[in-house]
Amino acid sequence: MNRLFLSTSLALALSGSLALAQQQDAALAPTAKHHHAHNPQREAAKISKELNLSADQAAKLEPILADRDSKIAVLKNDTTLSPAAMKQQMRAIREQTKQQLASVLTPDQIQQLRQTHHRHGQQQQSATSTPQSAS
User: Fold this and answer.
1) Of 35, 99, 107, which Cα lies nearest the Cα of 64?
2) CA-CA distance, 56 to 63, in Å (whole number)?
3) CA-based max dimension of the chain
4) Each residue's pLDDT tens digit, 121-135
5) Is 106 left (phi over 0), alpha (psi -120 to 50) or beta?
6) Which of 13, 17, 30, 132 is the most exposed place for a label (fewest CB within 10 A)?
7) How far apart are CA 133 and CA 135, in angstroms?
């Protein structure tokens, strides 16, 4: 009888802890998602450091990135768009951002930025791909 009571108590305690942990994860989810959201100030500072931008270039970079992020946010909140239309408009926003960056950065800096983004994309891809287990 004691074993049954102890097992039941332990099971209830563990399930309560699990439920609490899930609630905390759910409560943190929006924060965690926001943490990965673009931050124009942080992104401009990072790019400025990576590319060794002048103060004038760095000052022009942040508004471009903020404009891009606000346009993307509006686009993502537009539930009337079809996936194809959203994809097309996202592409247009990226192209516009590239053009704006080209007016601020030198050709060498643009190339360096592309290489940095390419490396970052490869790192993300390798981090999200999981090795197949042999069966």
Assistant:
1) 99
2) 12
3) 78
4) 666 666 666 555 444
5) beta
6) 132
7) 6
SS (H, E, C) 79-126: CCCCHHHHHHHHHHHHHHHHHHHHCCCCHHHHHHHHHHHHHHHHHHHH
87: burial class by Cβ within 10 Å (0-12, 13-18, 19+)?
exposed
H/E stretch holding 70: helix 55-77
Choose among 57, 58, 92: nearest CA to 72: 92
Which tens digit of pLDDT belongs to each residue from 59-72? 999 999 999 999 99
**Closest C-alpha among 109, 107, 113, 72 to residue 91:** 72
DSSP code of residue 52: T
